[in-house]
Design the sequence.
């Protein structure tokens, strides 16, 4: 990697630019008890971020404000509060066009307000990292966790990852930059987590040393020119393609979209190397598998424990990346499963739909349990769903009358 | 710097497109006294344009690009509209991303360039239509000014949404009958120059592009003030001859008619105190530079 030229030198805060593989995989880790928001701050402290742009919305406001403290301490080049999420994401775009490593955070209605920017980021090949701490987007107003916004992000051409725990979050913020800044990827990353469950709870997270940081972003390792007038201002095209209603115009637009989606696919190899695969499995040979992402996976783990106490063996597939979609991996992991249980924190069941579209005999997929609007997902309702599938009677958890 | 960054390796010179060869040999990057008078004798930074024949936006583009004081370190930000069809032909880096977000993009861009190139000049200039500046993008236009972002905002005011076929815009005159204003626009032309002043712009000019020397002056002032002090705003009348029913030859006259003292594009400027001081210093230095150059030539003679 070109960027290794600065490895071993110090930044103005005295942190040593460290080979990312050494920093993430070999450097000693210190267990620390932090909220998810504090973990975001600690990751950004070590990520050599040039520009962060913030806007308040629960449940990411705390993280966004904590990063402001990092700026005040001199860890970030520039930081300010934008005027709306739409503007913030455009401000992020401007900073990334100008060659900065850019970080931002949003949630729920903020994600939706900003939406026009996301396919633009992807098409412009801007490797911005946007933390999405998912919350409801419905009316009446809700601030509670709900993952429906992820289903919109999945169609934008961004990389979309879904963290389960604060530890995932910590590691993936830094690994996320490493993947999305690869010249053959060079795409924005929506790094999602379930709001509150991850952002506002405390957990033990193993941190890398605070005096080590990622090498800075090199904007010239990019498939498109950086807009800083440091390289020739090429004339971009003979005629703007929007002017043309002809085959060349259509072909250009079509092939660029295909290229963006191909770049998502090319991110696989880097992501697999950094994250040890796009999925993680436990007891994948069991007849019943719980397959999901985010904190639905954590609740699945609890359900598996409860069922084990009753002698029922259930396996787990944790999906880490939604874009790229690990279709092949899921097909392989679920090939012997008779029942595929997909618990989700949203009303539409987008995860179950994606899984159904990727595997043979999709009637094995049981789309549920679903909770939404901020409801928690007690492991018992997953247990109940599984027992129901297996034809085992269980006491109703909440009577609907019989 | 001069043309250092665009130089072509000698081995490849002959296979480069002729317009690029021209840029390297005959453009005025790095020439401190560049200006509108170079048009016709040097390579312009606009290759060609796909605007309607005679569209005053094309004149405005040529004058502005000839007048930028520091094109070799200037990045422009555009928006969707007729202007976005010209930018792909422009030989300074420029960004088009969405409709109306130009001042937000420029805010992020300027800050990134400041972080990345401390101690170096990197000018940012926004150029967008009136719909982009005043309607869909008004929030971001004003907020960039409130925040005192150090870049220039230029609005090509053609008093309507040209690119989508002539719909009503906030800068359209009251009473004008247009698409989406079927009984005539019911409210006054938005007073953006005044709003710009109140919003914190340090240099504001409202004029037409009928006189290239004037365009050169206001562009240079706006860029210098934005570089050193804070936001600047130029509202330039570039009539959409297509939508107001004029012929290709009539754009200039339309601008002359609208800049008469009682008309809406009569020259109007506002300059803040710090900006006045800066412009006076620059003028004094310029005078000195010219005097020194004159002395040098007379000595040589
Ligand atoms: C979000 C969004 N809304 C609407 C449009 C359609 N649109 C494209 S250009 C334009 C009008 C541009 O008007 P103006 O900014 O005045 O520029 P002009 O074409 O007049 O130079 C509109 C409405 C768009 N591209 N994006
Ligand atoms: S539509 Fe109007 S503004 Fe656009 S290029 Fe034609 S004359 Fe100019
Ligand atoms: Mg217009």
Sequence:
């Amino acid at each position: 990697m070109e960027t290794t030229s600065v490895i071993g030198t110090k930044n103005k805060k005295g942190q040593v630019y460290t080979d990312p593989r050494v920093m993430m995989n070999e450097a000693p880790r210190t267990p620390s008890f932090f909220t998810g928001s504090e973990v975001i701050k600690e990751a950004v402290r070590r990520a050599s971020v040039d520009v962060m742009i913030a806007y308040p919305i629960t449940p990411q406001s705390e993280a966004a404000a904590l990063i402001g403290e990092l700026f005040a301490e001199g860890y970030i080049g520039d930081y300010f509060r934008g005027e709306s999420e739409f503007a913030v994401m455009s401000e992020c775009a401007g900073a990334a066009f100008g060659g900065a490593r850019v970080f931002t955070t949003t949630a729920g209605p903020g994600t939706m307000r900003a939406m026009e920017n996301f396919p633009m980021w992807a098409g412009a090949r801007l490797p911005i990292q946007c933390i999405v701490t998912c919350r409801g987007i419905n009316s009446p107003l809700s601030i509670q966790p709900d993952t429906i916004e992820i289903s919109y992000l999945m169609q934008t051409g961004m990389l979309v990852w879904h963290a389960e725990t604060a530890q995932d979050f910590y590691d993936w913020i830094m690994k996320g930059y490493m993947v999305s800044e690869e010249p053959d990827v060079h795409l924005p990353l929506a790094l999602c987590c379930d709001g509150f469950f991850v952002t506002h709870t405390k957990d033990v997270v193993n941190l890398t040393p605070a005096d080590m940081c990622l090498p800075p972003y090199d904007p010239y390792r990019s498939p498109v020119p950086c807009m800083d007038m440091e390289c020739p201002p090429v004339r971009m095209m003979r005629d703007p393609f929007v002017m043309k209603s002809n085959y060349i115009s259509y072909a250009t637009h079509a092939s660029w979209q295909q290229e963006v989606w191909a770049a998502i696919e090319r991110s696989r190899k880097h992501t697999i190397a950094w994250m040890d695969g796009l999925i993680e499995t436990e007891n994948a040979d069991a007849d019943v598998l719980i397959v999901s992402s985010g904190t639905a996976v954590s609740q699945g783990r609890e359900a598996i424990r409860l069922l084990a106490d009753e002698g029922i063996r259930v396996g787990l597939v944790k999906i880490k990346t939604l874009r790229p979609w690990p279709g092949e991996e899921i097909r392989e992991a679920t090939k012997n499963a008779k029942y595929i249980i997909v618990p989700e924190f949203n009303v539409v069941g987008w995860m179950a739909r994606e899984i159904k579209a990727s595997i043979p005999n999709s009637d094995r997929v049981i789309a549920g349990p679903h909770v939404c609007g901020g409801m928690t997902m007690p492991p018992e309702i997953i247990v109940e769903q599984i027992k129901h599938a297996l034809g085992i009677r269980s006491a109703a958890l909440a009577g609907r009358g019989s | 710097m001069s043309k250092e960054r665009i130089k072509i390796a000698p081995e490849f010179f002959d296979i480069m497109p002729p317009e690029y060869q021209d840029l390297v040999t005959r453009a005025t990057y790095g020439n401190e006294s560049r200006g509108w008078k170079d048009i016709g004798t040097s390579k312009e930074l606009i290759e060609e344009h796909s605007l309607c024949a005679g569209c005053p936006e094309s004149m405005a583009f040529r004058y502005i690009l000839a007048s930028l004081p520091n094109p070799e370190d200037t990045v422009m930000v555009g928006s969707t509209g007729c202007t976005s069809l010209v930018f792909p032909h422009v030989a300074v880096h420029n960004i088009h991303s969405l409709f109306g977000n130009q001042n937000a993009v420029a805010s992020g861009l300027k800050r990134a360039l400041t972080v990345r190139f401390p101690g170096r000049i990197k000018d940012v200039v926004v150029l967008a239509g009136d719909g982009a500046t005043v309607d869909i993008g008004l929030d971001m236009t004003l907020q960039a000014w409130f925040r005192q972002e150090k870049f220039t905002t230029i609005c090509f005011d053609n008093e309507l949404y040209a690119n989508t076929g002539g719909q009503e815009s906030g800068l359209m005159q009251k009473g004008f009958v247009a698409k989406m204003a079927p009984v005539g626009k019911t409210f006054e032309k938005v007073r953006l120059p005044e709003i710009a002043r109140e919003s914190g712009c340090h240099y504001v000019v409202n004029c037409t592009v009928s006189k290239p020397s004037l365009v050169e002056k206001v562009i240079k002032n706006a860029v210098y003030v934005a570089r050193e002090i804070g936001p600047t705003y130029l509202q330039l009348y570039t009539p959409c001859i297509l939508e107001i029913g004029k012929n290709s030859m009539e754009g200039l006259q339309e601008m002359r008619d609208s800049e008469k003292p009682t008309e809406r594009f009569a020259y109007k400027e506002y300059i803040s105190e710090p900006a006045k001081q800066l412009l006076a210093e620059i003028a004094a230095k310029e005078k000195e530079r010219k005097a020194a150059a004159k002395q040098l030539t007379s000595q040589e003679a």
Summary: Chain B has a mean pLDDT of 95. Residues 48-271 of chain B form a domain with the Rossmann fold fold (CATH 3.40.50.970). Chain B is about 40% helix and 10% strand.
